[in-house]
Design brief:
75 residues; 32% helix; three-stranded antiparallel sheet
Length: 75
């Protein structure tokens, strides 16, 4: 899912529930991934959570554990 896709999510996107990610938080995460992720690290999969946060996953890439980002903390 792209950041543009994430920014388009509306309240209730997940089976009638689910908060949309905070746009300012999305901008901060996108900028951080572009600026700080080394070129050798594959692009992660970015998954929204029903709580309005993000799950960042690199699948099977060694040394790249998944992590949750609470977007409300960033804004």
């Amino acid at each position: 899912m792209t950041f543009d896709d994430l920014a388009q999510l509306q309240e209730g996107w997940y089976d009638g529930e689910g908060l949309p990610p905070v746009r300012r938080g999305l901008e901060i995460v996108a900028r951080a991934l572009i600026e700080f992720c080394p070129d050798w690290v594959p692009l992660p999969e970015i998954v929204p959570t029903p709580e309005g946060n993000l799950l960042i996953e690199w699948g099977e890439a060694e040394g790249c554990p998944p992590f949750d980002i609470d977007l409300m903390i960033l804004t």
